[in-house]
Amino acid sequence: MPDALTLVVILLATAVFAVVLFRRLHLPPILAYLGAGVLAGPGGLGWVDDTSGMQYLAEFGIVFLLFSLGLEFSIPRLLALRRVVFGAGPLQVLLTGLPVLLIMWLLDFPLAIALIAGGAFALSSTAIVIRDLIARGAVNTGYGRASTGILLFQDLAAVIMLVLLPVLAHPEIGDPFITAGTTLGKALLLFFGIYVIGKWVLPRALEETGRARSDEVFVMTALLLALLAAWVTHALGLSMALGAFLAGMMLGESHFRHQIEADIRPFRDLLLGLFFMGVGMLVSPQLFAKHWYWILLGAAALMVFKSVLIAALLTLLGERKETALRSGIMLAQGGEFGFVLVTLAVSHGLMNSEQAGILISIAVLTMAATPALLEHSRTLTRHLLRRWEQEPDTPAVDENTSGHVLLCGYGRVGQNLMRYLNRFHHQAVAIDTDLVRIQEASQAGERIIFGDATRKEILERAGIHRASLLVVTFDDARQAERILHTAHQLCPDLRILVRTRDDTHLDELLQAGAAEVVPEVLEASLMLVAHALMMLDTPFGKVLAMLRQSRRERYKLLHGYYHGESLPTSDSAGNPYRLLHAVTLDEQAACIGKTLGDLDLPARKVEVQTLRRQEQTIHHPAADQTLMAGDILILYGPLEAVEAIEEKLLGG
Prior knowledge:
Blueprint: H1 4-24, H2 29-40, H3 52-72, H4 75-80, H5 82-106, H6 111-122, H7 126-136, H8 142-169, H9 176-211, H10 215-235, H11 240-251, H12 257-281, H13 285-316, H14 321-330, H15 336-347, H16 353-375, H17 377-388, E1 405-408, H18 412-423, E2 428-432, H19 435-443, E3 448-450, H20 456-461, E4 469-472, H21 477-490, E5 496-500, H22 506-511, E6 516-519, H23 520-535, H24 540-552, E7 578-584, E8 607-613, E9 616-619, E10 632-638, H25 639-651
Parallel strand pairs: 1-2, 1-4, 2-3, 4-5, 5-6
Antiparallel strand pairs: 7-10, 8-9, 8-10
Helix pairs in contact: 1-2, 2-12, 3-7, 3-11, 3-12, 5-6, 5-8, 5-13, 6-8, 6-15, 7-8, 8-9, 8-14, 8-15, 9-10, 9-11, 10-11, 10-12, 13-14, 13-16, 14-17, 15-16, 23-24
């Protein structure tokens, strides 16, 4: 094994290379860390042959992760989750562990190994799930709260399992029930102590630290708080992560919360990377090649069973079906505390390294599949609900409804539009595919239909032939074009208003048949201009005239902008962005003496917005304008076309 400094350099270099490579391949960094761990571990190139020190260091990543999670929570929120934490949590652990125990016992495994496997597979990965929830800002969503509640109980259960495992290995130590009761008593005592300190002591200590006006002192204080709470729980024989979570939760209601979270994030992310590398080091490629069929079967069976079980339990507790199913998908994997449990079992002689390797390989495989499931959990959930459920009971618009406004999409913009239409006594009907949104809006008495607004039968069901206006309220130009095409096939004279983000697709949408296109970025710019002019005492009539003229000219003055260094060449759909670009004509430029009409700019979808000649500025110069040395042309168009015109202007 190399010396400590060489080992750190090797591990960091491997991690950096793996993360960059996986980013290029559009794969999550967790998989990169796992792969780097497999490569560096005993089963790979053997750079690290003893993983115990690595695992101890990496455990601090879990400490800081749980501390960050605690900052997102408060005591009232935790009490609100008590039904999930102490309802679905115990049932999930029990009903996952028992079938695993039974299957392994039927396969002639010793009872001790079956118990350990059942407990390990009942746990999910707090590190992966919570990190994803925090990154998405989804901790306080329905599925975020449900997932977190179950994970919290799993962490408590893991503490009890770790305490009872030595008793299982050495029954002479004492009664397991007394040991479990002692552990729970310690946890309650710890909770009360941290609550008192966090409520009355820590905020005052942080205020004193803040008065020092030193970033270094505040960062050290944040680290000290997380590590001190972890040290206290560790000294009491409990999980370090549990203490960090409780300390974070106590500080979650203070105004220092955001600063503390920002300070510890670099340490958290670095240590979590080391944690996942440590997990990868536990995997043996040779063992996987030998038992790959059992490992694949076990991983698939575990993920399907846990998903269905958690979804069923949350549904029985009254959670929405989408929340329950999405939580089940998120918690389907094995967990990091399962690795600790298996490793401890090996150290106590309860199982051999090959048996432990198979269990760890199954858990790692489920964790490797989890990032993709988390990324697509929303789409997968909706697909499953549409497949297994009846469509929501949203009756078609009756024949007496006419002259209504048809809203395609019922997100924030669609809902705001609906409210104002109702205030002005206009009937409106919305179309959306979000099942939860539909259920809530329907209960509130709003008229909303489940379906895809690009389909003819859905538009007909919403009464498009009797509608007076159709509004596309979501920002998706390609979807909007499909709706325009379908709507004009059904009702050619219907006026259609389309929302889009900017002017990138403005011309295409107008050509596709939109009566008006509202680019929200340009409208926001107009409103900012109008407010600025009003605050400069410009007469209201002139401001209103400016707004009307800008809209009549299709925001001509606002088209394009200078992107700077971070220039995106295309949008998410692959369509080229339009931009402004300045070209200075020197004496050697090939276009000197030619007119703008000679350049055939319209055919290349490029226009000259402005021509600057010494102190003179000409907006939208005519085609017969002759170009001279020293002229500065402001070109507007797609990136490649603008570059081609610039080359033609300068080089011929």
